[in-house]
Amino acid sequence: MRQAGAYSGLLCGGTSGRTGPHSLPLARIKKIMKGSSDEVKMISGEAPIVFSKACELFIQELARRSWNMTIQGKRRTLHKEDVASAVIATDLFDFLVTLVSSSDSGSSQVATTATVMEME
Length: 120
What we know:
mainly alpha, 5 helices, 5% strand, elongated, Histone-fold
């Protein structure tokens, strides 16, 4: 019999203690994947799981870097400007720079999560 591998936690909820296996809705992810192109007709069962985990890791990294910006500002409340600063300061997030713009008042604006994730 085949032994569970290192990634078996992805399918059964991992070690985080959450009640469900995923924090992002797999059906919604699959719907977004199908709607991304007319050429996409079928999606394997594993693809949304892997994509969900990748999204979780991305959100975690962005939140961590945004929190570091909050701490540097000697605050304990995360603001959208902290997310914008994290995006601008990190080369890995260059693809998000177009979503971050400077307003007339000089403060940075970040697109809402609904725009970024298109989950709603």
